[in-house]
């Protein structure tokens, strides 16, 4: 791996782009040597109701920033702009999949946020209560997030493609009083019944008192008057100002569930002061934003990217954003490029999966549109392969603008490693996220925790706390400690492989743990396994992945069936349906292998490397580095058994044994 990465570094072109002057090295050193001084100065840019007493209280593994300070994020995003020219600026140009549009100025967003906050209060939501937001990409979603922040309610956004069961798991864990949903959502011309999923979740979770429904689709929706309320009815008489709660800097702001090594998603808990500062500063540094910026982050708000960089940071900075409801290729493959030309987007921030999809469909689609408004491009979610980077650079950026490849995580709140054109221009290398943000001190370690020399691949760790760092895992401090702080004590462990090259550029090389990235979405093998064994026909299962040209990785599952159920396309389809109903569409396996036995070591551990080798069509030779304690003979025997005795079915494949109906 090291060698391959090295040759990439040596052979790929570099580019430079224009930016204001600042001294990146100097700023990074200052933040490293005097973090309290540095962050204390940066934090003066926020509006505090009360100044902090102490910039940082760091007792491993808990960092508490701006201790004693009081603020409110909805105030940062809205109220303070009411005294400036930002007041009448467009906050969001929203566009629906059907082509309908809505323009929200800062003044309008401020008014609506107050009204929604009043409505939540009327439902009895108080500071510290939890509210689940299960909504598509419509204006009501950011407005509800701002309204919750305003009254100090902790929100949890659940991605709209998650199933009713997945919603229930999250609602139950966070003990939400309210679920906010919409009648349905538009996706590639279809209407998906979100409200039905919310009802399924509410029935499973006694904590839920009310479902608030935003009318978004025309279809008929059944309402239970005791539990369900239309947003419009609730808003009647709520036209009032709501005083923003004075939140403590370390009060929780939201919980966002993400996959880790366990079968259940963990609730990443973010705070108020440090998070608000971190996302605004990193956005400015990575994208050199200014008053004229028209920002478009294509991520769904259901992920951290959307929380930090669709909703909060752009509003804190008073920027104009585009928000689009639908699929990138609907109704035609140039929908995105049309949107960029229409609104004069100056920064596009998207994912390698999207870029690779457009790449496959050809450069004639972007070529049809005027993309000259673009000033910077961004990428996030998974490693970007140099080929996709160069395609993006040439066909979208027309070789005149740079790409900020931002490496970060749900847990980090905001960008960690990225080019910083907002501080100082530097060279880029296609496929490298380049350098750490000021305040981020990374290192690359071997399995024993020894720092590796440049050029070698190991685990990335972050040696010091930063303001956007998660507060905790929601009511699971043991898991927090174990996941991030136990392997290399005192250092934060993100779980990615990394290599630092001879120029100190960082190359993030994918997950080092059992987390799969499907189209940039995080899902753990344990979660897939525990979902599929919930089906009565399944005895045992193991999940792995295979590289996928577009989605980065594709899910491959190995399943042993219970007696009486022979392998067939029908059972494969049934299990696929079961996974989608339990988790959501992102859990769709690319292929299922039915095997007689899962390969295990004497101590009962699944030989995951071996499964990966079978899934990727590699040979047994490639498994010589089995790290799970299996002997080579054991592995060989298991490999032979697997290769010979398995039935496998690809997604969409028809059963060769099944004759067509006459
Ligand atoms: C994981 C975090 C970051 C917000 C969206 C995903 C991978 C993310 C990059 C990048 C290489 C990347 C990592 C990371 N990742 N961005 N620019 N280059 N890998 O957030 O769901 O918390 O996933 O995504 O593996 O650990 P997430």
From TrEMBL:
MF term (GO), any: ATP binding
PROSITE patterns: AMP_BINDING
Location of the AMP-dependent synthetase/ligase domain: 87-466
Bias-annotated ranges (Basic and acidic residues): 650-662
Biological process (GO), any one: acetyl-CoA biosynthetic process from acetate
Keyword list, A-Z: Acetylation, ATP-binding, Ligase, Membrane, Nucleotide-binding, Transmembrane, Transmembrane helix
Superkingdom of origin organism: Bacteria
Chain ranges of the AMP-binding enzyme C-terminal domain: 527-605
Enzyme Commission no: 6.2.1.1
Record-linked Pfam families: ACAS_N, AMP-binding, AMP-binding_C
Transmembrane parts of this sequence: 131-162
Residue ranges of domain Acetyl-coenzyme A synthetase N-terminal in the record: 24-77
Gene3D superfamilies per record: 3.30.300.30, N-terminal domain of ligase-like
UniProt xrefs under InterPro entries: Ac_CoA_lig, ACAS_N, AMP-bd_C, AMP-bd_C_sf, AMP-binding_CS, AMP-dep_synth/lig_dom, ANL_N_sf
Segments for region (Disordered): 643-662
Assigned protein family: Belongs to the ATP-dependent AMP-binding enzyme family.
Protein name (Swiss-Prot/TrEMBL): Acetate--CoA ligase
Taxonomic source organism: Dehalogenimonas formicexedens
Lineage start: Bacteria, Bacillati, Chloroflexota, Dehalococcoidia, Dehalococcoidales
Gene that produces this protein: acs
